Fold this sequence. Notes:
The complex is a heterodimer. By secondary structure, chain A is of the alpha/beta class.
Amino acid sequence: MGLAVEAKDLVKQFGNIRALDELSFHIKQGEIFGLIGPNGAGKTTTLRAISTLILPTSGSVEVFGLDAVNQAGEVRKIISYLPEEAGAYPNLSGWEYLKFMAKFYTKNASELEKIINEAAQISGLADRLKDKAKTYSKGMKRRLLVARALMTKPKLAVLDEPASGLDVLHAYYVRGIIKTYVKEHGVTVLLSSHNMLEVEYLCDRVALVNKGKIVVEGKSDELKQKYESQNLEEVFAKVVGYA
Amino acid sequence: MLKGFQTILVKELKEMMRDPKILVGIIIVPLIMFPILGLVIGYATQTAQEEAAQARLLVVDNDGGNWSQAFIKFFRAVNVTTTVINNTTPEQVVSQDLLTQNNSTQFLLIPQGFSENMTQFTNGNLNVKATVDIYGVFKSGGIFSNVASAGITTIVEGFNRAVSPNVIYASQSTILDGEIQAGVDPNTLSGLLFIQSLALPITIMILLTYAMQIAATSVAMEKEEKTLETLLTVPVDRFAILMGKLSGSIFIAGIGAVAYMFGYNYMLGSFAGMAQTGAPGVDLAALGLTPSLFDYTLLGLSLFVTLLSALALAVIMSAFAEDVRGATALIGYIYPVIFVPSLALMYLDINSLPLFVKAIFYAIPFSHPVIASKAVVLGDYATVVFGIIYVAAFTIVIMYIASRLFATEKILTAKLKFKRRGSKKTAEQQE
Lengths: 243, 431
């Protein structure tokens, strides 16, 4: 199977700060790949570079063989990005929001309807989709946005902290969607998280990021075995020399 | 005292006073803005007083009798520089441009029979009154524009007090666009138009600041809610995002401009009505001092391009803010640039300002609707059209900058950062 994402020697410099320091990794098609690491490690910067939001200072990113810098327009057609703690338009209803976003992908009325219905099913918000987004709880908003990110069945879904800050039930629901929907539709997922348990549950492979570099990469079980750890949290602490 | 009140108050003050945006917007800006405004208005007052003091009065003495000589002497005694001509009709004064030749903006006509009437009145025939006619060129500058004209009436009253109360009746007429409007007092006209010159800038200030808030909030909200981040990753032209946002604001602003025009028209209509009932004979519409449909179109266009420039500027400014609060504070820095010219032009004729102040006012796009509103009344369409072209060009430049900003990651990463020593620079935002 081919590669969905290939990041090579990515460097991103913000003034004097080196956010990404020759970071390299790859994701196979259909995989759920997790980037984990502390705040400021470079996770969001990596996701933004892959999603064509920021330009790498040096290095390259390819998404399904398309260059994320020179073919950004083409990349945007096959990806879907969900920023961390994003919101929706408060004065649009959930339904209107989904329709607004779907229109960027198709002008065909029946396809549009199909996409929106798909999103409605993914979100599980039913009649609440008719209400304005400002009346939604944080968990409902996140379900709406996850549905938006997956409704077009993108080849690559880039999800930044998809379940952060959600209560147990909403987080469970969101993780469930990602796990099942992705496997059913063959969507490749790149996600970031602070929550090591979440990553263990969701991801086929993970990469631990620290100070802009990938410090270790592999399957959760293999990493735990290799570093003789109970969980990924312990793996990370051992790798960065904290434990 | 309430328990905990002091602790909360101290925290609030620290939090706010340490926010440079609040410090600059709430404290520094007014400290600079009002002194500047004071200087400009002070200058206008001084200029008007100097003009009044240096006013030359053209006296058309068609009487040539003893009393007319005495009357002219009285003017000279109170240091009014006078030039006397004889046997000339008011129409000749205007058509031969004698006022300009004598460096004056008003003339006093002493009609034939003035001395005879004076003699009869002083001899006890109180039914006979002498009349003089004061003709003043109307200037729509502002509150101080007709100081000199009012001064002449005061001197006539002074002469009456010296001789006999009510001996001379002074009628007022206005010279407007080279035509004599008999019986129309320039002070009444100026008073009516001053109400307009107050209402207009205030409305424009409100409309501009409101529209800028809408645009800035719209972009800042997208940044705060990260909906912009999402939009930038979907298959849509980034210029389309910018134009879509601007067009939305333009649409709202356009409705605002139309509403403003209707309101303004209604206001003028009500003043014209007041003028007709309150000051018989003064009909602003008949004098060509209310805007025509063409004038309204030009005014609307001027306001529209100005709104557009303000909106584009607001979009750029808000791109440097992280959230709605930051955007609102940043927009606050533009307010003095809107307020100072608008407030100043309430009182002043732009042409009476020193060249460099005039240049600054013309360079500020937000001055142009106010300038245009005065210019259309006087039929000075060149100034209005120049303003529209200038503001349109300014807007194009601003929109180009905005489109460049949207085309790059700067729209997400740029922010205005205030350093401790007050210097500022853009910094990049990172995870």
